[in-house]
Design a protein that fits this description.
The chain has 344 residues and is of the alpha/beta class. It has two domains: 225 residues, Aminopeptidase (3-Layer(aba) Sandwich); 97 residues, Beta Barrel (Elongation Factor Tu (Ef-tu), domain 3), CATH 2.40.30.40. 26% of the residues lie in helices and 28% in strands. The longest helix has 20 residues.
């Protein structure tokens, strides 16, 4: 079976990362995925709230395979008197995972201002010990400092920055010895894997063994990315990261098949079909359970009331919602499992 084209995957992963898409900020990345999909000859449907549905063809027993385009990030909560920004998280982003990261502030007028997430006070040498020992808190001692000559709220507002503006983290993507490190491996790495599957279908004029949609969702990080599906879909398969940890079997070099998450078990018969496909395709995989804080877009579909089977797979990934790390082998195993399950 063909392996993942590393060069193409990394090209697409970098392109997706270059587009800030904090949950709710979807238009640019939606347009990019539509452009890439239609260039390969696939028909697309742009969902009204921000996703992209791509039709890969095939007949009967419709399935939607989904990966999400939205990222966790920040939003301007208040402009402080000294011109810095008080911020709040969008999705599960915590101060200890983003303090000292570079960011981009997107104003409603289209201007982008760069800055850094900082502690306040921000210099160790002039900070009392008791203040240095306090945990970071977006509400009281973490702010965004703009790379602008501003010392007041009025000067910051003159730049076009206002309450409600989105703030995206610099991904800092790099590859070392096969390890892929970046913010937003969750879930842009999996979206790039889906694009790689589409490229194989296009270049080899292949047809899936069932009618297949690829659903590039928005709003997954807030739980409602795929709460709408086209008529006729029988199964939904989420492709998302498999967090590693001391109680997990997930491994960065393998693909994980999800048996259960924090909400409920995944559909058993679909899980068995995925395990059989992995065995047939000689895919290196594990089965894992993810609690207490994990969910996927498959959960959102079930909770919306759709009569579907739901499942999830994905590459083992360390440091979830922080500076994440996976491995090309885990991404390759995810890619080959998709090919095997869809008969490609």
């Amino acid at each position: 079976m063909e392996h993942l084209n590393e060069a193409y995957f990394l090209e697409q992963f970098r392109a997706l990362l270059a587009i800030d898409s904090t949950t709710g900020q979807f238009r640019e990345i939606q347009n990019y995925v539509i452009e890439q999909s239609e260039a390969m000859g696939f028909s697309t449907y742009a969902t009204h709230k921000g996703g992209v549905l791509v039709d890969l063809g095939g007949e009967g027993n419709d399935i939607a395979v989904t990966a999400h385009l939205d990222d966790i990030g920040l939003m301007v909560r208040r402009i402080n008197a000294d011109g810095t920004l008080n911020v709040c998280p969008v999705g599960g982003l915590y101060p200890f995972y983003c303090v000292m990261e570079n960011v981009r502030v997107h104003t409603r007028g289209g201007k982008v201002c760069t800055g850094t997430v900082c502690r306040t006070p921000n210099s160790v040498h002039v900070t009392e010990e008791e203040l240095r020992s306090e945990a970071g808190d977006f509400r009281k001692n973490v702010c965004v400092v703009l790379d602008e000559d501003t010392k007041s709220a009025q000067q910051t507002r003159a730049l076009g920055v206002e309450v409600g503006d989105y703030i995206g983290l610099e991904p800092r993507m790099t590859v070392s010895n096969g390890y892929v490190k970046s913010h937003f491996v969750d879930d842009k790495a999996c979206a790039a894997v889906l694009l790689a599957v589409m490229r194989r279908v296009h270049e080899n004029q292949l047809t899936p063994n069932r009618h297949t949609y690829f659903y590039f969702a928005a709003y997954e990080e807030l739980g409602h990315g795929t709460t709408w599906l086209p008529a006729g879909v029988k199964d939904i398969l989420a492709v998302d990261i498999a967090p590693t940890g001391p109680d997990q079997t997930s491994d960065e070099r393998k693909v994980s098949l999800f048996a259960k998450d924090s909400r409920f078990p995944y559909q058993l018969e679909l899980l068995r079909e995925l395990q059989d496909a992995a065995d047939r395709s000689a895919v290196d995989y594990v089965t894992d359970v993810f609690t207490p804080h994990y969910g996927s877009d498959g959960d959102g579909t079930v909770l919306a009331g759709y009569d579907v089977r739901h499942g999830a797979i994905g590459p083992g990934t360390a440091n979830s919602h922080g500076y994440e790390r996976t491995h090309m082998e885990g991404l390759d195993n995810t890619y080959r499992l998709l090919l095997g399950y869809l008969g490609l």
